[in-house]
Structures
1.
Amino acid sequence: MAAPEPPPPPVDGSKPLSGLLSGIAQAAYHGKTGITEELLRGQLYPEAAPEEFRALRAKMGGLLQSIASADMDLNQLEAFLTAQTKKQGGITADQAAVIAKFWKNHRMKIHESLVNQSRWDNVLKNVNWRVDLKSQSRHIDQINTPVAIVEMELGKNGQESEFLCLEFDEAKLRKQPPPELKLC
C-alpha cells in the first residue's frame, strides 16, 4: 500500500497576495499612513512593473472594499468570489482562496475599524453613579439632603475623554422637564 500523497505546496503567489491584502487593509482601515504603494511593490512584487502592480493593487483594493462595505459573511463571500472568478478579467481561483482566507481572519478587525471610523460623535465610555449628601448650598435648608450624582465619560478611542456630571435632587427628579446639567 502506497503512502498517501502529501498536500500540494502552497501557491507561489499566495504569500505576496496575502501580504498585499494585509497592506491594503492596514492603510485603508487601520490608518497606517506609512504603507505606500512603493513599499508594497518593493516588498511583495519587486519584479512587477509599476503599472502592472498598480492594476493588481487597485483590483484587490476594490474587491476588499466591496467585501468590507457589505460586511460579507462566508456564504456571501463565496458567492461573490465565485462570480469574480467567472468574470472576464476577474480573479483566479487561487486568488479567491487567498482572499477568502484573509477575510475569514480579518473580518472582525476591519468591521470594528469601519464602525469606529463611521462615528462622528463621542461615545459613552464609562458611567459611575452614587448618592451623596449635599454639603454646600445657597440655602441652609438644602444642606444634608440626598442627591444622586451620575458621572459619564465621553470620548472617542485614542482621544482624551470629556466628563459630564449630572446632579439630581429629589425635587428635580419629580419635575417633568429633564434635570439641569452640570459639568464636573
Note: The radius of gyration is 28 Å.
2.
Amino acid sequence: MRVGFSCSDSPSREIFNGGGSEIVMMESPCRRHGPSVTIERAPPRVVGHQCMARSMTGRCRGRQGGQMVSRYTIQSAVKVLDTLFAFTSPDPLTVDELGTRTHQSRNQVFRCIKTLHEYGLVADREDGYVLTPMALRLMPSIRRDPIVMVAEPYLRTLQEQTDETVNLVVRWQARETITLTTLPSRHAIRLVSQVGQVSFLHAGATPKAMLAFLESSVQADVLRELPQYPRYTPYTELNPERLRAELSVIRHRGYSISDQDFEMGGRGVGAPIWDRHSQPIAGISVGGPVHRVTDETLATWGPLIVQVAEAISTEMGWPGRPTNPPRVQQNIPHPGVPVGK
C-alpha cells in the first residue's frame, strides 16, 4: 500500500517495503492544500488475465501451460487486454513496467501498447503511457448493473455514518473477486481502493465474507491450494486449518474481519450480499487505517454492515432467513437517513 499526501506536487520517499506491499511517505510543501495523507495499495504485480493461479497450478481460468484452452480465444487480443488492465492507477507506465506487470516480452508489450494507442485508449507521454478518457465510455454500462444501482444509496449512507472507505465487491470467476464501486473516506488519512481491482478469496474483508458462505467445493479448492496463494502482507493467512477455523467464525457471526491481511495498515469488516437463491453473489466492506479502527470500532461496524448487506440483498430478491432470527436488532436506515434517527 502507499501512504502519502494527496497533493500531486509532493515528492515521495519509500519507508517500508515488505510482504508484497509498500508504504511511501509523501511530504507536501503545498501551503494551500496543507497535509492530506492517503493510504493506498500499490498496483498489483499481476493483473488482468495474468492470474497468480497460473504460477500455482499451471493454469489460469481456462489456460493450460500459459495458453488459453478454448480454440475460440484470440491470443493476441488477450495480450492486448492484459496490457490495458495493467493500468490500475493514474500514474504513467513505461514499456518495461508494463512488461513486468503482464509477464510479456518488451516486443509484445510494444505492439500491444501501439495498438491501444492507435485505438485511442492510451496516450504517449514523456514519462510513459497513460489511459485516456476514452476508457470512461464503459462506465455507464457498469453503473447500470442492477447490484450497483441498488447498493450505491446504501453504501453512501454507510460511508456517511462511518466516515471510512466503503467498497462493493462481486465474485468474479471461481475463486476471485473484483471491486465494482468504492466510496473513499473524507479523512486526510484513509484507505484507497481501486475500481476493477482483482483479488483472491482468501484475504480481505469482503472476499473472506463471501468465501465463508460459498459452496463447500469452492472452499475445499481454496483451502487445498492455499499455501500457494499470494501473501499480500505478512498477516495474510496461508495455513488451511487456521483459515478454515476463521471461516467458521465468520459464518457464526455473519461478517468477516480483515486485520492487515490484505492491506498493511488497514482494518475493516465485510458481509456478503445474497441473491434470490440465498447464494452470496457480492459483498460490501468498510475499512480504515489501524490507528483509527480499534477493536471497539470493528465490533460496532460488524452488526451494522450485516444489516446493510441484508437490506441490499432484500432489494435484490433475497427471501431472507426463514428460520434464524436477525443477527442485529437495530434497524438499518433507508439511504439518506442517519443511524439512530
Note: The CA atoms of residues 7 and 32 lie 10 Å apart.
